[in-house]
Specification:
Layout lengths: L3 E3 L2 E3 L3 E3 L21 E3 L16 E4 L2 E4 L8 H14 L3 E7 L3 H13 L7 E5 L10 H4 L2 H14 L3 E5 L7 H11 L3 E4 L3 E4 L14 E5 L4 H14 L4 E4 L5 H10 L3 E4 L9 H15 L17
Parallel strand pairs: 3-4, 3-14, 4-7, 7-8, 8-9, 9-10, 10-13, 13-14
Antiparallel strand pairs: 1-2, 5-6, 6-12, 11-12
The structure holds 3,4-dihydroxybenzoic acid.
The site of 3,4-dihydroxybenzoic acid has 16 residues, from loops.
Amino acid sequence: MLVSYINNIKFENPVLVASGTYGYGHEVSDIANIDSLGGIVTKSVTLEPREGNPPPRIAETSSGMLNSIGLANLGVDSFCKEKIPFLNELNTNIIINIAGSTFDEYEIVMSKLEKLENSNHIGYEINISCPNVKEGGMEFGVLSDMTEKLTSKLRILTDKLLIMKLSPNVTSISEIAKAAENGGADAVSAINTVVGMGIDIYTRKPKLYTTMGGLSGPAIKPIAIANVHKIYKEVSIPIIAIGGISSASDVIEFILAGADLVEIGTLNYTNPNIGVQIQHDLIKFCKENKVDKLSDLKGKVKYHV
Ligand code: DHB
């Protein structure tokens, strides 16, 4: 009922967790039933270790969250040594998120991961849309020719799933999605965070050290649905929807808009098991509404005219 595929890769259910909201899995393994998820997307990995931006780097907003973490991570070499062994023990699909600032950086990180003989990861999500640092690849994600070139360079390096993660902070997200498809991506994921800012009225300081950051959570869900639908109308590769999902009905909205799979992000912070709960509610919805396969609903929104 909930099984989905990207190419020949099977997802037991369409509910994954988004990069940066689940660490590398072991951080939440005591409190969450990770193996029941459709998959985990790891926190972004870069070539070199990064401390990230100074605090404050997270701030709460109405129905959402601002963040400017700045790609804090341990770098690909330590990731391979310290994180891959735990990830390998999991019984769910592992997707490694890669960030970089040059073609070379993305290519070197991917080559190192491809050389691992003992890793079970089934694919890569390529972050070309981090709003918080130059190294987040934003310059790739706003230009369609750069997106296509990066995608095709990475395509040559791997037979695993290649998923390009797209930014909503662009003029035409469907053009960027088309470029990813032309470059040979297996899927796109959308949306990354929306550029946002908050100010403490007493100190008059921005709520984030970097002044602006990325807004996520239920506040951005309608923006995400519109962007997923724009992409759906333009490309034929699968779409992984991200943006403020907090319930099974949110997942169904995204599937009707054209999504194949979804990633839960910000809501993991309030309940790291929300992805598992949502699956139970999706099964209930399918039974009650005589839906044989959730994937039958893809793109089935009915316009008023
Ligand atoms: C970060 C934020 C993002 O929205 C993203 O896609 C990747 C990284 C960060 O600040 O670390």
